Amino acid sequence: MSQDHTRAPCPWRILEDFGGAFSMGVVGSGIWNFASGFMNAPKGKRLAGSLNAMKTHAPIRGGQFAAWGGLYSAFDCTLMQIRGKEDPWNAIMSGALAGGVIQARKGWSAILVSAFAGGLILGVIEGVGIAINRAMSGMHAPVAPMLPETAHATA
């Protein structure tokens, strides 16, 4: 069983990912809503409109990100324990399961669409990560030493 030793062990990983996802959602949403509030506020009240939009919407989006991140980590840890290995399939299945659970109140069609989207997004992320790792591993291969050019004698 290959483990990623750079991350916290599973029970703590879930809490760590809750906090990380919340922070990412708040910061990203804060920037987005600050700009949106600035553009939509009347002239003379743009700064106040920006700050109001940011204060109103950023914590909500942060909570949504935290819910998804926590579910994703919980499913990832569970699948890792059940399957006995840590591989890209755990991440893909965890993304699909988290996406489906988030949409559970909206019915089966929303569950299936969100689960497909979550699995697809995580599949792309994992695929790009694998491609980058393969490309980078070739950069560290030993290079054959360059031989000095032989002197050409002119006769």
TrEMBL record:
It comes from the Eukaryota. Its main location: mitochondrion. The keyword DNA-binding does not apply. This is Mitochondrial import inner membrane translocase subunit Tim17-B-like protein. Belongs to the Tim17/Tim22/Tim23 family. The lineage of its organism: Eukaryota, Fungi, Fungi incertae sedis, Cryptomycota, Cryptomycota incertae sedis. PANTHER family: AT05822P-RELATED, MITOCHONDRIAL IMPORT INNER MEMBRANE TRANSLOCASE SUBUNIT TIM-17. Keywords: Membrane, Mitochondrion, Mitochondrion inner membrane, Protein transport, Translocation, Transmembrane, Transmembrane helix, Transport. It comes from Rozella allomycis (strain CSF55). The chain crosses the membrane at residues 110-132. GO terms for biological process: protein import into mitochondrial matrix. One of its GO terms (cellular component) is TIM23 mitochondrial import inner membrane translocase complex. The keyword Hydrolase does not apply.
